[in-house]
Amino acid sequence: MTRVAPTVPEPAGLALEGIAFSYGTTNAVLEGISLTVRTGELLSLLGPSGCGKTTLLRIIAGLERPSAGSVQVAGRVLSDVAAGVDVPPQRRGVAMVFQSWALFPHLDVAANVAFGIPKELRG
């Protein structure tokens, strides 16, 4: 009799569950956003100006805190409001290219360019 090891599903590349975000108490930008992107899969966020695309990316990168929901990358929980988890941006392993100039003023040019590159890959 041949034993076959059970297959363990690979964690999603990105998993968002119930993400909500508001600017202040009256301006809800995101409500109940859930999506899963498999490793190697591509996703485009399309929509009119002001619909929350950049806010969602900032939440994934850890630059904004959602008011509800969770963010996972490769099975690692980066943010979970209910559980009180909030991994800081520099420890997430997530990079974001800004639409306009947004440099870290405390870093020199090389450090700004290298910020999104994992330390083990830096030369």
Task: Report on the architecture of this protein.
The chain has 123 residues and is α+β, with helices and mostly antiparallel strands. It has a domain at 14-86: Rossmann fold (3-Layer(aba) Sandwich), CATH 3.40.50.300. The protein contains two helices and five strands, in the order E-E-H-E-E-E-H. The chain has helices at residues 53-61, 109-114, and strands spanning 14-23, 27-37, 68-73, 76-80, 85-86. Strands 2-1-3-4-5 form a five-stranded antiparallel sheet, covered by helices on one side. A hairpin with a 2-residue loop joins strand 3 (68-73) and strand 4. The longest helix is centred in the middle third of the chain and has 9 residues, at 53-61. It is globular and about 65 Å long. The mean pLDDT is 88.
Short description:
This protein has helices spanning 53-61, 109-114, and strands at residues 14-23, 27-37, 68-73, 76-80, 85-86.
Key words describing this protein structure:
2 helices, 12% helix, 123 residues, alpha+beta
Structural class: alpha+beta
Strand order, main sheet: write it out: 2-1-3-4-5
Helix content: 10-25%
Question: Which ranges are low-confidence, i.e. pLDDT below 50, for 5 or more consecutive residues?
Answer: none
Write the CATH architecture name of the domain at 14-86: 3-Layer(aba) Sandwich
- CATH third-tier fold name of the domain at 14-86: Rossmann fold
Distance between the termini: 50 Å
Largest sheet: 5 strands, antiparallel
CATH level 4 superfamily of the domain at 14-86:
P-loop containing nucleotide triphosphate hydrolases
Radius of gyration: 17 Å
Distinct helical segment count: 2
State the CATH class of the domain at 14-86.
Answer: Alpha Beta
Binned strand content: 25-35%
Number of strands: 5
Topology as a string of helices (H) and strands (E): EEHEEEH
